[in-house]
């Protein structure tokens, strides 16, 4: 590693605003911002850009998810399970991007928290399957309640039946209550999200730490392999796509599915063909719930969901059908992953004395028990819950758009959730009084200003981190999920010193190929066979594209990040947590990716960036 060129990251208070983004601070709640009177405190902390979950600018309404997720994460560490070494993480929005800061428990308080944590977490670990079954019912019931919410226009006059019944309340009361319920249910499922997640990472981190003590030379990736090869529900949507591809070939309807630009018309054509009815029946069976899945990560209102936009899963099915026609395998080598997992664990267990071997095997069983939740919760919360939440929010935005509050159907997402409540009351008040709502004149020019600011913010990528470099990081999710360790932080500080990019060894293998920068799901169709996907972060739903890629490189993520887990399960070499790969590498450059060593080498640093169609710009 080259000598460190910096000892700290920029201060958020010293970074100039992008031109045209002046006043961006007024778009977000005060508690999401760095405050001048807390400057010393802010600069003394370490803040990393959470590009794993928020790789692009966050609109004000979307910041609701920042608030709910980070608050819920903290409550389970700090108040629910009383985690000994870590509270939660603090959060800020700076220049439109989300930054997080792990909050450590003071050293003198750690031991006092240990007995309570063992008592509380131990109960969950002892009753894991029983409590997890209850969890799934709670989450799905909340989703169904979200799905039942309707935002419908207010009537010209209240129905006489309600007057005759002496109801005494107007439809505006129901409309306001439904919005409040929408927000409350979203908050509820984000709390459920973290009920098991912190424990899942804690169990793996405990096993990881023990392995490092027993086997100091054991690579991080070797430890991760000990829990690989699990049949995860998170992969079920992709499994359904592969089943549908195979069924299409079997039924002889694959010619329809391999045509360019698949979409709703593809399903209509198959539905009227005698040999296509069985296929469309299988499609509908898979759609609910497994196509409540997004090619994004569920944190943005603009994420496209498979059930709403069938062209996305149909495109993936087309790729699978084409690979089947060429005789290429499309299934994950699950048996091979399990065999490797068992071989490695047996070899390491054999190196220990009988007493230590029992502890090793007990910790491994606990890690394997908890590990599936670390990925499976994604489907139920980030994908299914948030898909319904965004759909209902868009329904409300359309209602207020039709009342003249804003010109575009999705403009509501430029308001905070509290501003939406104010606008909705303005709408209800206008209906009740017969006067024109103030929002019809107030919001259109204000939204034009906000859209301009958001566009200006989007033109400047975030700093990978802000503030001071910490001596240690003890919060389990920060280490395992985000890959925030002192070693990674030093590599980010060294980013401008030249040489190889250094990240987390996330999935083994050595590969060389042409870089393809993928900043979001809209770029996935550009990926060519044999390219290296370089992204701020990947989403679990990108699995179908990994069959094309020879390797994956991301800016953020630890050995247990979604990108790392998915790449290992799909046997694709990967390096995560590089900090800056997607900003310093350009499409068209030749790369060598060593997933075992965690290094990315640019083989031709002077190569020009290719155009979106893969050709050199003229």
From TrEMBL:
Residues 528-598 form the PEP-utilising enzyme mobile domain. One of its GO terms (molecular function) is transferase activity, transferring phosphorus-containing groups. It comes from the Bacteria. Residues 1-20, 598-618 are annotated as: Disordered. Residues 605-618 have a biased composition (Basic and acidic residues). Gene3D superfamilies: Phosphohistidine domain. This is PEP-utilising enzyme mobile domain-containing protein.
């Amino acid at each position: 590693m080259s000598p460190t060129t910096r000892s700290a990251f920029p201060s958020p208070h010293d970074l100039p605003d992008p031109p045209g983004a002046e006043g961006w601070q007024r778009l977000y709640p005060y508690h999401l911002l760095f405050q001048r009177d807390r400057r010393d405190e802010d600069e003394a902390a370490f803040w990393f850009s959470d590009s794993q979950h928020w790789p692009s600018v966050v609109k004000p309404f979307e910041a609701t998810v920042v608030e709910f997720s980070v608050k819920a994460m903290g409550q389970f560490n700090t108040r629910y399970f009383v985690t000994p070494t870590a509270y939660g993480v603090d959060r800020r929005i700076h220049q439109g991007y989300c930054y997080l800061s792990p909050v450590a428990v003071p050293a003198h308080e750690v031991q006092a928290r240990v007995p309570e944590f063992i008592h509380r977490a131990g109960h969950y670990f002892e009753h894991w399957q029983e409590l997890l079954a209850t969890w799934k019912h709670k989450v799905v019931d909340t989703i169904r309640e979200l799905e039942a919410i309707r935002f419908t226009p207010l009537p010209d006059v209240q129905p006489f039946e309600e007057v005759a019944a002496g109801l005494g309340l107007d439809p505006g009361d129901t409309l306001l209550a439904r919005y409040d319920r929408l927000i409350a249910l979203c908050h509820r499922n984000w709390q459920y999200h973290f009920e098991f997640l912190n424990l899942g990472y804690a169990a793996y981190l405990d096993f990881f730490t023990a392995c490092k003590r027993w086997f100091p030379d054991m690579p991080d990736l070797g430890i991760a392999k000990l829990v690989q090869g699990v049949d995860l529900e998170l992969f079920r949507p992709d499994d359904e796509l592969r089943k549908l591809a195979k069924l299409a070939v079997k039924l002889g309807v694959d010619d329809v599915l391999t045509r360019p630009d698949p979409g709703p018309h593809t399903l209509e054509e198959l539905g009227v063909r005698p040999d296509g009815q069985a296929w469309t029946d299988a499609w509908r069976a898979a759609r609910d719930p497994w196509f409540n899945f997004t090619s994004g990560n569920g944190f943005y209102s603009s994420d496209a969901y498979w059930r709403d936009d069938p062209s996305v899963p149909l495109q993936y099915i087309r790729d699978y059908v084409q690979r089947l026609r060429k005789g290429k395998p499309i299934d994950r080598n699950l048996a091979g992953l399990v065999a490797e997992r068992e071989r490695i664990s047996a070899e390491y267990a054999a190196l220990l004395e009988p007493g230590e071997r029992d502890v090793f095997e007990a910790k491994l069983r606990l890690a394997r028990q908890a590990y599936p939740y670390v990925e499976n919760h994604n489907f139920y919360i980030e994908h299914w819950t948030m898909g319904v939440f965004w759909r209902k929010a868009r329904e409300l935005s359309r209602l207020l758009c039709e009342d003249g509050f804003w010109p575009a159907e999705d403009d509501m997402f430029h308001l905070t959730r509290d501003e939406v409540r104010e606008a909705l009351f303005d709408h209800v008040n206008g209906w009740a009084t017969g006067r024109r709502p103030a929002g019809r004149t107030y919001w259109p020019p204000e939204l034009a200003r906000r859209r301009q600011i958001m566009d200006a913010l989007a033109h400047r990528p975030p700093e990978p981190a802000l503030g001071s470099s910490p001596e240690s990081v003890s919060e389990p999710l920060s280490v395992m999920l985000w890959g925030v360790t002192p070693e990674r932080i030093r590599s980010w500080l060294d980013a401008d010193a030249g040489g190889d990019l250094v990240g987390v060894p996330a999935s083994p293998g050595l590969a060389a190929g042409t870089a393809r920068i993928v900043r979001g799901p809209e770029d996935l169709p550009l990926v060519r066979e044999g390219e290296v996907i370089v992204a701020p972060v990947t989403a679990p739903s990108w699995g179908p594209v990994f069959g094309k890629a020879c390797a994956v490189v991301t800016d953020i993520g630890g050995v247990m990040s979604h990108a790392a887990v998915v790449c290992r399960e799909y046997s694709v070499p990967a390096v995560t947590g590089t900090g800056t790969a997607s900003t310093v590498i350009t499409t068209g450059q030749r790369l060598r990716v060593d997933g075992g060593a965690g290094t990315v080498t640019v083989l031709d640093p002077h190569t020009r960036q290719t155009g979106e169609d893969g050709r050199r710009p003229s």
